[in-house]
Amino acid sequence: MTNKTARSARNAPPPADHNRKRPEAPVAYNATVEELLEFYRQMVLIRRFEEKAGQLYGLGLIGGFCHLYIGQEAVAVGIQSALEPGKDSVITGYRDHGHMLAYGIDPNVIMAELTGREAGISRGKGGSMHMFSVEHKFYGGHGIVGAQVSLGAGLGFAHKYNGDGGVCVAYFGDGAANQGQVYESFNMAELWKLPIIFVIENNQYAMGTSVNRSSAEDQLYRRGESFRIPGIQVNGMDVLAVRGATEEALKWVQAGNGPILLEMKTYRYRGHSMSDPAKYRSREEVQSMRDKSDPIEGVKKYLAQAGVSEDELKKIDQDIRKIVSDAADFAETSPEPEPHELYTDVLVEQY
């Protein structure tokens, strides 16, 4: 070996540490029949609620933008069923109705917010994209793509600073995964070992461009590796797979290991928003996903194997339809905010 070669060897960077600690590989959650029925109920509630929201939007009763969660129900239900309400915090983007319903927030106040009524959870001033509930530790509903990831890191910091044992779940999409602020947040979260689960809801198309065309690395669960944040790719159309992965993520974070990244491979059946005709994909593709991977039909199969009758599921469906119908009636008959409300909630205090 020459002196030059020896110097180069001494100055070479150390090899990548492929043996560093990682979370266990997740397994599907072993749900009881009662839990399966509750997953089914929540997923059907989200599906019927979003269908009704689409109808009200078409009638002009919902203004602005409206992004529906139809097809992605297993993600919010599977993750949030593992969280502790009032302790763990949740933050997401503007496709937020399903997350609120999965966290037990009243459908009436969500629908009233969609229609801009005083009884809405943000007093009718936030609309579809900006909902909030401090009581439930649900921190939005954010219209700026990727902004919720940085805010989620702040929530994780608050959990650690306060020593309350809580974990933040910060959802964002495959489109937001290319935002620079996401990686600034990853860096800080790992440096400070924040108790946060970053969840990429990869519904394949962001606003309308396939993830394969828009992302050089389309295996999004790897996006945290350069920050030493481990990632897990999950079948986001299977609520038991989602819940199982969430259990492992919680174990990792609660043990003080810092953040973890879950990539949920999911699919939305509607366009990006109600104004999107979704011409960038074929009807055959969407129908194939409905036929082969629908999350609600998947739970129905699990329930059938557990001996639950079709009549019992029909009763749940009927109950959910009434809840959603009542929520729409409540929203349509609630008064709009008074004009003076235009000036409230602008500042934390009055000056």
Describe the structure.
The chain is α/β, with parallel strands linked by helices and 351 residues long. It contains twelve helices and five strands. Strands 1-2-3-5-4 form a five-stranded parallel beta sheet, sandwiched between helices. Helix 2 (33-58) packs across helix 3 (73-80) and helix 2 (33-58) packs parallel to helix 12. It is globular and about 60 Å long.
Draw up the topology in text.
Blueprint: H1 3-11, H2 33-58, H3 73-80, E1 89-91, H4 97-102, H5 107-114, H6 147-162, E2 168-173, H7 180-191, E3 196-202, H8 211-214, E4 231-235, H9 239-257, E5 260-265, H10 283-293, H11 295-305, H12 310-333
Parallel strand pairs: 1-2, 2-3, 3-5, 4-5
Low-pLDDT residue intervals, each spanning 5 or more residues: none
Shape assignment? globular
Largest sheet: 5 strands, parallel
- Percent helix range: 40-55%
Strand content: 5-15%
- What's the count of strands? 5
Order of helices and strands: HHHEHHHEHEHEHEHHH
Radius of gyration: 22 Å
Q: Between the first and last Cα atoms, what is the distance in angstroms?
A: 75 Å
Category from helices, strands and their pairing: alpha/beta
Mean pLDDT: 93
Q: How are the strands ordered across the major sheet? A: 1-2-3-5-4
Number of helices: 12
Summarize this structure as a short list of keywords or feature phrases:
5-stranded parallel sheet, alpha/beta, 351 residues, 5 strands
Structure described in brief:
By secondary structure, the protein is α/β, with parallel strands linked by helices. Helices cover 44% and strands 8% of the residues.
